[in-house]
């Protein structure tokens, strides 16, 4: 049985068991993570610079090694400030970020831990990181207790979300039902719900948006299990007041395939990425409620500049500078991507937030 057929049958079984309707977070979880047939657990290449490589999108570590080299300054500072020696990366992609961090941090890192659900990406990571084979450890899940500096680049955006739709002033949860069309087996179906966004959305127009209980639960779990250390999460998103702005009435749900974007996760299920932006206010609240402090929040551009990226590029080639510029420019990744840092114990100000901190906007 092909992977798409296996995935469709799995979704159908789960849908039947649920009475014929699946909340979108359950559908998204299977589409991305079903063993052997989900997008991230299957053999597709996923990450790369160009579609000719068979990839679907590019992340900052693949775009430029200077991203990881600048981030290494912040990670190194955090290791020293928290008296820890281990790095934990969640969703390590191709392994490029780990390679660049280890190249700078060297012996300051006793063990580099990678927590990743993708078997195919793990093989790619092992190949990328063969020079550090004795110091890299892979995990399928987070241990009950650990210490160190946690790094997650484009991690939260791939966590399943719940879709909410407001029509005529009433909120509905958007889910998925089966059709009789073999070419288009899935369709949307909305049900009334008591769920709603964390803030009231102004206006009386129809409105589609997302809430992020799984991402917030992940941060709470980190807070409970991280005994010493800090957390750096880098992703595209907004603070709450921007996320639920009345003009953002179509939500942020998006798919990526072959370096093209589309808004329909019910087509080519398992063959493309499904993602949403991050509500960083919700992440900050989840961390604080579980006992962690918010150490800083700012744009990726400001964070990398604070970490010395401009100085690091002085000896880089013109081509390397051009690629690194995409990390900083407002119309590329510099403003859309944000960085939030969380810490255990007494708060301190990390290097990446010394200028341009936006914590007050959360």
Word description of this protein:
The chain contains twelve helices and 18 strands. It has 362 residues and is α/β, with parallel strands linked by helices. The strands form four sheets. Strands 4, 5, 6, 7, 12, 16, 17 and 18 form an eight-stranded mixed beta sheet that branches. The longest helix has 18 residues, at 65-82. The chain starts with a helix and ends in a 19-residue tail after the last strand. The mean pLDDT is 94.
What structural class do the secondary elements suggest?
alpha/beta
Counting DSSP E segments of at least 2 residues, the number of strands comes to 18
% residues in beta strands? 25-35%
What would the average pLDDT be, to the nearest integer? Answer: 94
The N- to C-terminal Cα distance equals 47 Å
The major beta sheet can be summarized as: 8 strands, mixed
What is the element layout, followed by pairings?
Layout: H1 3-17, E1 22-23, H2 24-33, E2 46-47, E3 55-57, H3 60-63, H4 65-82, E4 86-90, H5 96-105, E5 111-115, H6 119-128, E6 136-139, E7 146-153, E8 162-167, E9 170-178, E10 186-192, E11 207-211, H7 213-225, E12 226-238, H8 240-243, E13 254-257, E14 260-262, E15 273-275, E16 278-279, H9 280-289, E17 293-299, H10 300-306, H11 309-312, H12 318-325, E18 337-343
Parallel strand pairs: 2-3, 4-5, 4-7, 5-6, 7-12, 12-16
Antiparallel strand pairs: 1-9, 8-9, 8-11, 9-10, 12-18, 13-14, 13-15, 17-18
Helix pairs in contact: 4-5, 7-9
């Amino acid at each position: 049985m092909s992977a798409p057929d296996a995935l469709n049958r799995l979704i159908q079984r789960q849908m039947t068991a649920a009475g014929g309707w699946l909340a979108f977070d359950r559908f998204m979880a299977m589409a991305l993570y079903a063993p052997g047939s989900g997008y991230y657990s299957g053999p597709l290449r996923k990450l790369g610079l160009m579609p000719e490589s068979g990839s679907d999108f590019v992340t900052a570590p693949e775009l430029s090694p200077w991203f990881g080299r600048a981030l290494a300054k912040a990670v190194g500072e955090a290791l020293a400030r928290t008296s820890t020696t281990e790095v934990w990366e969640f969703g390590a992609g191709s392994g490029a970020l780990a390679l660049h961090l280890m190249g700078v941090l060297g012996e300051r890192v006793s063990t580099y831990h990678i927590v990743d659900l993708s078997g195919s990406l793990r093989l790619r990571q092992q190949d990328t990181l063969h020079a550090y084979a004795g110091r890299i450890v892979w995990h399928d899940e987070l241990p009950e207790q650990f210490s160190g500096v946690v790094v997650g680049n484009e991690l939260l955006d791939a966590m399943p979300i719940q879709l909410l739709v407001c029509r005529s002033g009433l909120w509905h949860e958007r889910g998925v039902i089966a059709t009789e069309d073999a070419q288009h087996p899935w369709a949307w179906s909305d049900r009334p719900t008591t769920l709603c966004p964390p803030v009231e959305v102004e206006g009386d127009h129809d409105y589609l948006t997302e809430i992020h209980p799984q991402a917030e639960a992940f941060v709470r779990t980190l807070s409970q299990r991280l005994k010493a250390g800090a957390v750096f999460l880098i992703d595209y998103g907004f603070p709450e007041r921007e996320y639920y702005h009345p003009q953002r009435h179509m939500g942020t749900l998006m798919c990526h395939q072959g370096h093209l974007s589309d808004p329909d996760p019910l087509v080519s299920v398992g063959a493309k990425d499904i993602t949403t932006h991050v509500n960083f206010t919700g992440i900050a609240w989840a961390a604080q409620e579980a006992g962690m402090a918010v150490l800083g929040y700012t744009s990726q551009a400001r964070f990398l500049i604070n970490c010395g990226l401009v100085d690091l590029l002085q000896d880089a080639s013109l081509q390397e500078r051009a690629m690194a510029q995409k990390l900083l420019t407002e119309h590329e990744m510099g403003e859309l991507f944000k960085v939030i840092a969380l810490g255990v114990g007494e708060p301190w100000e990390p290097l990446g937030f010394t200028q341009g901190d936006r914590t007050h906007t959360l």
